[in-house]
Design a protein that fits this description.
407 residues, alpha/beta, five-stranded parallel beta sheet, five-stranded antiparallel beta sheet
Length: 407
């Protein structure tokens, strides 16, 4: 029975071939693409989708929503997966899938399809988002369907299939890597990068200058935050997408934001990824520093213990889960007073914080000063403080002494 299918469409070889394969089965295919900041020929993408068998093409511009509702919350969380990955692709996928679900409901599609492979994380992110937002929407994942993968076994067969149906193929020779771009980052993987010991080629990078060729003079940038959300750069207020774009330019020209790592995919394997996240690196570094003078020690400690969990939820596709909503509430409370300005210097791949100020700072120079504070802090009180905190340690030492364990 023919289905009305919403296909997550990238304009690449795989999704174009999938579009034709679904159409050949007699299904009505609506191609859906989301603009999350990738450099794309949108008119060309629409034309190619129609040539591939689509009945209709929808392009949703979600750039502002992506930055405001996904990127900035992750910055407020200080969310880094396995301590290094800024989650660029992981944040974009639920944003794209959310927009797709809205389009599918409007177009009365009962099925959605995607071109993610059975080895990657994206299949999980797309499908878990759909499950959370449209539980009755069925899924077709052709790369996990033997009737598709037995015909389209790889790139060679996909190119032949495309030519058979007149689908334009840009090139038959692949770059020695694949890439994915949005406003937060560009990711590179596969090809030559599958060897974890192979150094990336210098001409691979697109958003960042080679740190060794970056300017020889440090560039100063001032970032203003309100409740943990970046709102201005160098005194200029900007909307979310414009601010992140500008941050990318500032940090990128100074070689900031490159990460080369082997990470743990949700499906179980280790995977090598190379990332460029210039603006995200700049903003999160500044945000983290501002928390130092605006967030209570114990609140920060509580939130920090949850960062790996939060990052894992994002990476694994659980953005719209109850657990994430609960953690978002904690983050929201923790950011109540994260307002102020951070001054940084960008120099040859480094972000160095050189100053911070806040109208609601917890820092009191009189209390912290090593000079005469005029009696603001009575140092004699520290004696009793240390004695009380040392009480359990002394008890433990006496017990060990009795047991013969104390040297």
């Amino acid at each position: 029975m023919a289905e009305r299918i919403m296909l997550l469409y990238s304009g690449g070889l795989d999704t174009s071939v999938i579009c034709r394969w679904l159409a050949e089965k007699g299904d009505e295919v609506i191609c859906f693409a989301a603009n999350v900041g990738q450099r794309e020929d949108w008119a060309g993408l629409k034309k190619k989708a129609m040539q591939s068998g689509a009945k209709k093409v929808i392009v949703a511009d979600v750039r502002e929503h992506f930055v405001e509702s996904f990127v900035f919350p992750a910055i407020r969380m200080n969310a880094l997966y396995e301590g290094r990955y800024y989650l660029g692709t992981s944040l974009a996928r639920p944003c794209i899938a959310e927009a797709m679900v809205l389009a599918a409901k409007k177009e009365k599609a009962t099925v959605f399809a995607h071109g993610a492979t059975g080895k990657g994380n994206d299949q999980v992110r797309f499908e878990l988002t759909a499950a959370a937002l449209a539980p009755n929407l069925k899924v077709i994942a052709p790369w996990r369907d033997k009737s598709f993968s037995s015909v389209i076994k790889g790139r060679k067969e996909a190119i032949a299939y495309a030519k058979k149906f007149g689908i334009p193929v840009k090139a038959t020779v692949k770059k020695p890597w694949s890439s994915d771009e949005n406003l937060l980052h560009i990711s590179f993987e596969a090809g030559m990068l599958e060897d974890p010991n192979a150094k990336p080629l210098r001409d691979m990078f697109e958003l960042t200058v080679d740190p060794m060729k970056a300017p020889n003079k440090a560039e100063t940038v001032k970032i203003d935050f309100v409740k943990g959300v970046p709102v201005a750069l160098n005194g200029r207020k900007m909307g979310p997408a414009k601010l992140l774009t500008t941050a990318n330019q500032l940090a990128g020209r100074n070689g900031v934001g490159r990460v080369d790592m082997v990470e743990s995919r949700y499906v179980g394997m280790k995977s090598r990824g190379v990332y460029e996240t210039p603006g995200g690196t700049l903003l999160m570094t500044a945000h983290r520093d501002l928390e130092g003078i605006t967030v209570d020690r114990d609140v920060m400690n509580l939130r920090d213990t949850l960062i790996p969990r939060m990052a894992g939820l994002i990476y694994n596709g659980y953005w719209f889960s109850d657990e994430m909503r609960a953690m978002m509430a904690l983050v929201e409370e923790s950011q109540r007073y994260v307002t102020g300005r951070v001054t940084v210097e960008l120099y040859k791949g480094n972000v160095t914080v050189v100053g911070r100020t806040s109208p609601v700072s917890l820092y009191d120079e009189k209390v912290a000063s090593m000079e005469d504070d005029g009696g603001v802090y009575d140092q004699t009180l520290a004696t009793g403080f240390i004695q009380l905190h040392g009480l359990p340690l002394r008890a433990q030492a006496r017990r060990a002494e009795k047991a013969g364990d104390l040297a």
